[in-house]
Specification:
transmembrane, 19 helices, two-stranded antiparallel ribbon, mainly alpha, membrane, transmembrane helix
């Protein structure tokens, strides 16, 4: 009888959790849409007037992909920045545009050259020659960028992006230090910070900094919920994935995914160092829930857009086919197992600091492995394998979206140094744990 009652109690508890998370998810989608409508309610004249002044002052150029200044093949994604800067602007801007419709369709003035020309036209009472829509993305960055553009133009947005990423790095380091120690936290972030062009993107790629900031904050959430139940980790993963896709342009989702999952697993194993099963549960809960939150929120955007007529089904099916097939009608992209990972590895290793970082990570890994071999500690070896497992998510993502990973390797490559950071942090945590155990003995 007690067994039956326990089973019923557990079943009721699970259903309550499911209903609570479902309610949280629906609430998030409603909040996202409300915030977008409010952002798009800002009078466009305030924005294009500031942008026109910035163009006249030389703060904005027509180059879509200027050099990042640090790598032979390194490029900055000014193309996306131009779309972000003109989000909500269209040929109807001069008269009026419904904020809800603007939030759903995500109108913009195109890549940098037509965007600059379009802003000039609007500022002189004309009509932009080219415009487009990006209704397949939530465009949540507009909640930050449109008010800042209206108040201070491009400069205000760039300064805010730098401050945001700096604050996010600091928050993640503080939270991680309390849970796993400062050395593993530094090992986790160092590769992606010092062997990519993230830190050179303040003027021609600030949209990437905004996304990176949300990814870092999602990682901090992973470190926060990791010691709690698998249900709590799953709820946290759903929130982290949903928040990231709200601002994401499909630039570096695996970075956000890995950060959350590693944080949850690392803290769980620190709380239960001898329980491999507990760590495995955290790994599964974090991995599945983040992807579910990300995917379901993206799907919700599409469902809202399709139901309202703001987005066409062909746009969805065409992009999904292009980004997952590894083929492109216009260009013969390399394909086959491992092709996307290999191409992105080449872009990463072209960064001057990438090879020393990769060698340093291999050195840390060798140090940890030698320590485990000398001590014959199978439990610690399994623990390190669980800690390092989130690094595989980078490969999974690159290969699953092989077309996108290949076409956009000049920024997608950052997933690999993030994976290297996960491996480095796992090695440091393992070696330090062994040293602490030996000191206590």
């Amino acid at each position: 009888m007690r067994t039956v009652r326990a089973a019923l109690s557990g079943s009721i508890g699970a259903w309550r959790w499911i209903l609570a998370v479902a309610g949280l998810f629906v609430g998030l989608q409603a909040l996202f849409l409300l915030l977008l409508v409010l952002a798009h309610s800002i009078p466009a004249v305030f924005i294009y007037s500031e942008l026109a002044t910035d163009i006249a002052d030389g703060l904005w150029t027509t180059a879509d992909h200027p050099s990042d200044g640090i790598s032979h093949r390194g490029l900055s994604d000014a193309y996306t920045d131009c779309i972000v800067l003109t989000a909500g602007l269209s040929s109807h801007t001069a008269t009026a545009i419904d904020p809800l419709w603007s939030a759903l369709t995500f109108p913009h003035l195109g890549s940098c050259e037509p965007a600059v020309a379009g802003v000039k036209a609007l500022s002189t009472g004309g009509i932009p020659a080219i415009e487009g829509t990006y209704g397949r993305y939530w465009g949540g960055f507009a909640v930050l960028t449109r008010p800042l553009l209206a108040l201070g133009g491009i400069g205000a947005v760039r300064i805010a992006a730098v401050l945001l990423v700096g604050a996010a790095v600091a928050i993640l380091l503080v939270v991680a230090r309390r849970r796993i120690g400062i050395l593993p936290a530094i090992a986790l972030l160092t590769p992606v910070l010092v062997s990519t062009n993230f830190m050179t993107q303040s003027t021609t790629g600030f949209s990437h900094l905004i996304e990176f900031s949300i990814a870092l904050l999602g990682g901090a959430l992973g470190f926060t919920v990791g010691a709690r139940s698998s249900w709590t980790i799953a709820a946290g993963g759903m929130v982290a994935g949903a928040l990231f896709v709200f601002v994401d342009f499909l630039h570096n989702p695996p970075i956000a995914w890995m950060l959350f999952v590693f944080g949850a697993v690392a803290v769980r194993l620190e709380s239960h160092p001898s329980s491999r099963r507990s760590g495995a549960k955290a790994l599964i809960a974090a991995t599945v829930s983040w992807l579910a939150g990300y995917g379901a929120t993206w799907a919700a955007r599409w469902m809202i857009g399709l139901a309202s007529g703001a987005v066409a089904w062909d746009e969805l099916s065409g992009k999904v086919s292009r980004w997952t097939s590894g083929t492109d009608d216009a260009i013969d992209l390399p394909s086959g197992p491992g092709a996307a990972t290999k191409i992105n590895a080449g872009f990463w290793l072209d960064v001057p600091t990438a090879l020393p970082v990769a060698l340093a990570v291999l050195g840390l890994l060798a140090w940890a492995v030698v320590t485990l071999v000398r001590t014959h500690d199978r439990l610690a070896a399994r623990r390190m394998a669980l800690l390092a497992a989130p690094a595989l998510l980078a490969i999974v993502w690159l290969e699953a979206l092989s077309g996108h990973s290949t076409w956009h390797a000049f920024f997608v490559y950052r997933a690999l140094p993030m994976a290297a950071g996960v491996v480095a942090a796992s090695a440091v945590m393992t070696a330090l744990a062994r040293r602490l155990l030996a000191a206590r003995s």
